[in-house]
Amino acid sequence: MYDSSTVGANLRNGTGTEHSVVSTVGYNEQVRVVSNEGSWKRVEYRGKTGYISSSLLSENQGRTSQNNSSNYGRGSTSSRTSGNSKGGVAGASGYTTAIGLRGGFTSGVSLKHFTSSRGALELVVGSRWHGVSLSGMYQMHQSGALGVPELSWVYGLGAKGRSLR
Protein backbone atom coordinates (compact mmCIF):
# COMPACT_ATOMS: atom_id res chain seq x y z
CA MET A 1 0.00 0.00 0.00
CA TYR A 2 1.00 3.66 -0.34
CA ASP A 3 0.95 6.62 2.05
CA SER A 4 -1.84 8.86 0.78
CA SER A 5 -1.38 11.59 3.40
CA THR A 6 0.15 14.62 1.67
CA VAL A 7 1.91 15.62 4.92
CA GLY A 8 3.32 12.15 5.66
CA ALA A 9 2.09 9.38 7.95
CA ASN A 10 3.50 8.46 11.34
CA LEU A 11 4.70 4.88 11.80
CA ARG A 12 3.95 4.21 15.48
CA ASN A 13 4.96 1.47 17.90
CA GLY A 14 1.31 0.74 18.77
CA THR A 15 -2.27 1.16 17.54
CA GLY A 16 -3.16 4.69 18.55
CA THR A 17 -1.88 8.26 18.46
CA GLU A 18 -0.76 7.97 22.09
CA HIS A 19 2.06 5.63 20.98
CA SER A 20 5.45 7.08 20.07
CA VAL A 21 6.55 7.62 16.47
CA VAL A 22 9.07 5.12 15.08
CA SER A 23 9.45 6.84 11.70
CA THR A 24 7.59 9.05 9.25
CA VAL A 25 6.46 7.64 5.90
CA GLY A 26 6.52 10.22 3.11
CA TYR A 27 3.68 10.90 0.70
CA ASN A 28 3.32 8.16 -1.95
CA GLU A 29 5.96 5.95 -0.31
CA GLN A 30 5.18 2.26 -0.28
CA VAL A 31 4.74 0.11 2.84
CA ARG A 32 4.18 -3.64 3.14
CA VAL A 33 1.10 -4.57 5.18
CA VAL A 34 1.78 -7.35 7.68
CA SER A 35 -1.64 -7.48 9.37
CA ASN A 36 -4.86 -5.55 10.03
CA GLU A 37 -5.50 -4.35 13.59
CA GLY A 38 -8.96 -2.75 13.51
CA SER A 39 -8.61 0.76 12.06
CA TRP A 40 -4.80 0.38 12.01
CA LYS A 41 -2.45 -1.66 9.84
CA ARG A 42 0.80 -3.23 11.00
CA VAL A 43 3.33 -2.47 8.26
CA GLU A 44 7.00 -2.79 7.36
CA TYR A 45 8.79 0.29 6.09
CA ARG A 46 12.54 0.60 5.44
CA GLY A 47 13.41 -2.23 7.81
CA LYS A 48 11.12 -0.99 10.60
CA THR A 49 7.81 -2.47 11.72
CA GLY A 50 5.01 -0.36 13.17
CA TYR A 51 1.40 0.77 12.87
CA ILE A 52 -0.26 3.32 10.56
CA SER A 53 -3.88 4.41 10.58
CA SER A 54 -5.74 2.67 7.72
CA SER A 55 -7.26 6.02 6.70
CA LEU A 56 -3.80 7.23 5.63
CA LEU A 57 -3.10 4.34 3.25
CA SER A 58 -4.24 3.67 -0.29
CA GLU A 59 -3.85 0.70 -2.61
CA ASN A 60 -3.15 3.12 -5.48
CA GLN A 61 -0.12 5.36 -5.68
CA GLY A 62 -0.85 9.09 -6.01
CA ARG A 63 -4.35 9.02 -4.53
CA THR A 64 -5.00 11.45 -1.67
CA SER A 65 -6.91 10.22 1.36
CA GLN A 66 -10.40 11.60 1.96
CA ASN A 67 -9.72 11.56 5.70
CA ASN A 68 -6.57 13.66 5.56
CA SER A 69 -7.82 16.74 7.38
CA SER A 70 -5.47 16.56 10.35
CA ASN A 71 -2.42 18.76 10.71
CA TYR A 72 -0.93 16.40 13.26
CA GLY A 73 -3.24 17.94 15.80
CA ARG A 74 -0.91 20.80 16.67
CA GLY A 75 -1.56 23.86 14.51
CA SER A 76 -0.81 24.31 10.86
CA THR A 77 1.59 27.21 11.46
CA SER A 78 4.19 24.85 12.90
CA SER A 79 7.35 23.77 11.18
CA ARG A 80 7.42 19.98 11.42
CA THR A 81 10.53 17.82 11.70
CA SER A 82 10.74 14.05 11.79
CA GLY A 83 10.77 12.59 15.28
CA ASN A 84 13.39 10.01 14.46
CA SER A 85 16.00 12.39 13.09
CA LYS A 86 19.15 12.71 15.19
CA GLY A 87 17.61 10.70 18.01
CA GLY A 88 14.91 13.25 18.86
CA VAL A 89 11.74 12.38 20.72
CA ALA A 90 8.62 13.01 18.66
CA GLY A 91 5.39 14.14 20.21
CA ALA A 92 2.12 12.43 19.42
CA SER A 93 1.84 14.89 16.56
CA GLY A 94 4.91 13.61 14.76
CA TYR A 95 7.14 16.66 15.21
CA THR A 96 9.93 17.22 17.72
CA THR A 97 10.51 20.98 17.57
CA ALA A 98 8.31 23.65 16.02
CA ILE A 99 8.14 27.40 15.59
CA GLY A 100 4.70 28.98 15.39
CA LEU A 101 2.81 32.25 15.32
CA ARG A 102 0.53 33.19 18.17
CA GLY A 103 -2.46 35.54 17.93
CA GLY A 104 -4.93 36.97 20.40
CA PHE A 105 -4.41 39.28 23.37
CA THR A 106 -0.69 38.46 23.32
CA SER A 107 0.60 38.08 19.77
CA GLY A 108 4.07 36.77 19.11
CA VAL A 109 6.26 33.80 18.27
CA SER A 110 6.35 30.45 20.05
CA LEU A 111 8.96 27.70 20.15
CA LYS A 112 7.85 24.24 21.29
CA HIS A 113 10.09 21.23 21.88
CA PHE A 114 8.83 17.77 22.88
CA THR A 115 10.89 16.19 25.65
CA SER A 116 8.84 12.96 25.51
CA SER A 117 5.93 11.63 23.45
CA ARG A 118 3.47 13.57 25.66
CA GLY A 119 5.53 16.30 27.36
CA ALA A 120 6.69 19.57 25.80
CA LEU A 121 8.44 22.79 26.74
CA GLU A 122 7.10 25.96 25.13
CA LEU A 123 8.60 29.45 25.08
CA VAL A 124 6.51 32.40 23.85
CA VAL A 125 7.84 35.89 23.12
CA GLY A 126 4.97 38.30 22.57
CA SER A 127 3.82 41.87 22.66
CA ARG A 128 0.75 43.39 24.26
CA TRP A 129 -0.20 46.98 25.03
CA HIS A 130 3.21 48.43 24.20
CA GLY A 131 5.09 45.89 26.26
CA VAL A 132 7.00 42.67 25.69
CA SER A 133 6.17 39.44 27.46
CA LEU A 134 8.09 36.21 27.88
CA SER A 135 6.28 33.01 28.87
CA GLY A 136 7.69 29.57 29.58
CA MET A 137 5.64 26.47 30.31
CA TYR A 138 5.80 22.72 30.57
CA GLN A 139 2.83 21.05 28.87
CA MET A 140 1.37 17.56 28.86
CA HIS A 141 -0.55 16.48 25.75
CA GLN A 142 -3.36 13.91 25.93
CA SER A 143 -4.73 12.85 22.55
CA GLY A 144 -8.40 12.06 21.92
CA ALA A 145 -9.97 15.31 23.15
CA LEU A 146 -13.76 15.27 22.72
CA GLY A 147 -13.47 11.78 21.23
CA VAL A 148 -11.46 13.02 18.20
CA PRO A 149 -8.06 11.29 17.83
CA GLU A 150 -6.50 14.32 16.07
CA LEU A 151 -7.37 16.71 18.94
CA SER A 152 -5.40 16.91 22.18
CA TRP A 153 -6.03 18.16 25.69
CA VAL A 154 -3.08 20.33 26.73
CA TYR A 155 -2.39 21.18 30.37
CA GLY A 156 0.62 22.21 32.41
CA LEU A 157 2.39 24.85 34.46
CA GLY A 158 4.35 27.93 33.52
CA ALA A 159 5.46 31.46 34.29
CA LYS A 160 5.07 34.79 32.49
CA GLY A 161 7.08 37.97 32.76
CA ARG A 162 6.35 41.34 31.20
CA SER A 163 8.30 44.54 30.68
CA LEU A 164 6.89 47.91 29.69
CA ARG A 165 8.62 50.11 27.14
- Parts with pLDDT < 50 across at least 5 consecutive residues: 63-89
**Tally of contiguous helical segments:** 0
Structural class by helix and strand composition: mainly beta
Rounded average pLDDT: 76
What sequence of helices (H) and strands (E) makes up the elements?
EEEEEEEEEEEE
- Count the beta strands: 12
The order of strands across the largest sheet is 8-9-10-11-12
Beta strand %:
over 45%
Q: Fraction of residues in helices?
A: under 10%
Please give the alpha-carbon distance between the first and last residues.
58 Å
Give the C-alpha Rg. Answer: 18 Å
**General shape:** elongated
Topology:
Blueprint: E1 2-3, E2 9-12, E3 21-25, E4 32-37, E5 40-45, E6 48-53, E7 57-58, E8 97-102, E9 107-114, E10 119-128, E11 131-143, E12 152-164
Antiparallel strand pairs: 1-7, 2-3, 4-5, 5-6, 8-9, 9-10, 10-11, 11-12
Describe the protein:
It is a single chain. Mean pLDDT is 76; it is low at 63-89. This protein has strands at 2-3, 9-12, 21-25, 32-37, 40-45, 48-53, 57-58, 97-102, 107-114, 119-128, 131-143, 152-164. 0% of the residues lie in helices and 49% in strands. A hairpin with a 2-residue loop joins strand 4 (32-37) and strand 5. The chain is built from no helices and 12 strands. It has a 5-stranded antiparallel beta sheet, with no helix packed on it. The protein has a 3-stranded antiparallel beta sheet with strand order 4-5-6, with no helix packed on it. Strands 1-7 form a two-stranded antiparallel sheet. It starts with a strand and ends with a strand. By secondary structure, it is mostly beta strands.
